[in-house]
Amino acid sequence: MNHTQIHTLGQLKAAGYKSRSIKDELRDNLRKKIAAGENTFYGIWGYEDTVIPELERAILSRHNINLLGLRGQAKTRLARLMVNLLDEWMPIVAGSEINDDPLHPISRTAKELIAEKGENTPIAWVHRHDRYAEKLATPDVTVADLIGDVDPIKAANLKLSYADDRVIHFGMIPRANRCIFVINELPDLQARIQVALFNILQEGDVQIRGFKLRLPLDMQFVFTANPEDYTNRGSIVTPLKDRIGSQILTHYPNSIETAKHITSQEAKLTAAQNEIVEVPDLARDILEQISIEARNSEYIDEKSGVSARLSITALENLMSTAEHRALVAGLPKTRVRMSDLMGIIPAITGKVELVYEGEQEGAAIVAENLIGQAVRTLFVTYFPKMEKLKRSEDKNPYAEISAWFANGNEFALPDNIADAEYEKLLKNIPALNELINRYQPNYPKKDAAFLHEFVLWGLAEYSKLSKDKFKSGYQFKDLFDSYLSSTLRGEN
Question: In b/e form, how buried is each residue of 82-98, taking b as 16+ CB within 10 angstroms?
Fold first, then answer.
């Protein structure tokens, strides 16, 4: 149907247009996409076998939907992608406030216009992207915002009494008739406002200031909610919950690889950053592992969750830290280093809700601990576990590195040195080279320096070395020598 050639009700009927409810429209178009092997929810990673099949079944069932999950689990993104299941263009009675279907008008204005002009009633067309409405539920949302209210200015201008239903100013929901309407954080909506949604979901009645209008609104409702809200801020009242057909649980990525896809897709990086800075794959793994550690940390409120935005903003900060170093040192290019991870601390502290113990530690300390724990976790996926080491020196793969530091050697790694000097310094520890050649012989050569530094950080996390921050870098020393030095300084 060519919408550009249809301008009247008569032309619409002649073209064979048939009305469908929005839920039937979504269902029919989804069936076609599934049969054709098309992916409606593109850009969503990790839900292929869990959330998306459940969401598709809910759409096929023509249900209103509640997406229940912690922050940063793509709930709103899923709702917005449902727009792609709508027809590209939808006809309405021209000038209609509530998207009246030309074949089945529901507003008084549209009915009177069709009665007056008949087949010559003008038709307008609405694109699918204009058939999406979204409202964040906050405690100050009113019934007037969502449903409508009496408009005294309209009454005065039209010289109508308040007993005339034409004085009604429709709210967001009636204006989103035949559209997808999303209410985010539903439990934050006051209970009396939730009650106002009952009849709209079930019977199609709208009550405004004493007016009871029979408006069989054609809506696809999608609600989002955080489980935390049920106990901390509010709840979904039972009758409303009963009218929501499907409740779908979302979740965080089940693997680091999935999380990396999401982070790479969502991070806002400039072409200049991608040109200047290269990121070893292990560094991306560490970023995702930090989020995993945060979700399991005793210092962080697990009910609040740790959004995928932590990893996204952390990658942006990591890139900017390396870029800043390159600009200061006048380097045309650089690679991310382990020390650059300290630059992501602001991205972590702003994304986690600390419990009492975490507040006592301090947000920055908790963030540093998360970085250290991520290094600990990933270290044993590359090198032997510390817990299983034999006591005899010849069975200990880290014995030679420990001996090199125990012989009075220290290793300082300044932050702003050029990459060539950085790589040269890290190769000055023979035992470190031997360890990597033995356990990671096929590791990419271009990232070898990062792996060398990763080993030193890992040994420090497992208390085999000390790692101390100085003004312009990090210093690694034998743990006993470091303790002795600090003790002597304390005595002086």
Answer: bbbbbbeebbbbbebbb
